[in-house]
Amino acid sequence: MTGYGKAMLETAHRKITVEVKTLNSKQADISVKLPWIYKEKELEVRNMILRKLERGKIDLYISFDAMAEEPAPVINRNMVRNYYAQMKEISEELGLDGGADLLGIVMRLPETLKTERPELTEDEWNQVSGLIEDALSMTDLYRLEEGKALEADLARSVQKILQSLENLAAVEGDRLVRMRDKLTALLKDAVGTENIDQNRFEQELIFYLEKLDVNEEKVRLKKHCDYFTETMNNSGLNGKMLNFISQEMGREINTIGSKANDAAMQKLVVMMKDELERIKEQSLNVL
Length: 287
Description:
By secondary structure, this protein is an alpha+beta fold. It has nine helices and six strands. The model has no long low-confidence stretch (mean pLDDT 82).
């Protein structure tokens, strides 16, 4: 489920910004980017995200702009002297005249400069963690608003399936009677009335027509739709359950379509399948 949250704070030393972006995902896929001073708190930040947002593809960024002058790098004198002595010795051995250029070369070597990095204080981290909570709460609120829109859309799709299910009764009519008359006429034309074993024919006809009856499927589909709505209105994490129920709805709709043997009924089945695909797609965005 998509979401976005942003929170900002100015301290005496820094202007701190926290941004959170989320997309739908079946698991918790968390990416955290922190400035060097907060790196030691990464595990704590991840736990805060899991507690608040639970799952999704979640990106959290923390950035800051220094409000005061940052400490300048300090020359590591011992390291520079050591490098310079070695470079000068090698130059003399090779008969080279490095001169003043040696110092420029030495200053580009590793660890010739060092920066005194300030320690993260408990007070500053308390402020930053509060800022993270604010951004996560804003993201969660964003997702709740989207969830309400998803709920309304899912409810409309379920209602359309139920409406098509009701229309099946009107379309179905005397379908089985018409099928019985058609089979009887075909058999008479094929072998003649006098050659028909009426008892055997009735047995086979009942068995065949039972295979075309869709009453059980309609009852089960109605139950699944009601259960879907009930689950959707429950609190808690219902996304996986809704997805499972939608699969059961699909089985009943497919069975009705395979038994329909009627153009008008097939049209309604196609409409129900269209709404079901919408339900399946949207239910993947539900926590």
